[in-house]
Amino acid sequence: MSSLDMPISEEHRRRRGRNYALAGVLLALVALFFVITIVKFQGLRWGQW
């Protein structure tokens, strides 16, 4: 029986779910910072010209 055939334990399943949740939170923060940066630069550009 290879390692790919072994059933996933409950601990691994929970850890994988937690990792996906953490990745989603990090991705949301990156997107938020990106949007804030774009809005600030556009406001700076339009406000000074």
List the helices and strands and how they pair.
Blueprint: H1 10-48
Describe this structure as you would to a colleague.
The N and C termini lie far apart (69 Å). The longest helix is centred in the middle third of the chain and has 39 residues. The radius of gyration is 21 Å and the shape is rod-shaped. 80% of the residues lie in helices and 0% in strands. With 49 residues, it is mainly alpha-helical.
Decide which structural class fits the backbone.
Answer: mainly alpha
The gross shape turns out to be rod-shaped
Portion in strands: under 5%
Distance between the termini: 69 Å
What's the story with the biggest beta sheet?
A: none
Summarize the structure.
This protein is mainly alpha-helical and 49 residues long. It is built from one helix and no strands. Helices cover 80% and strands 0% of the residues.
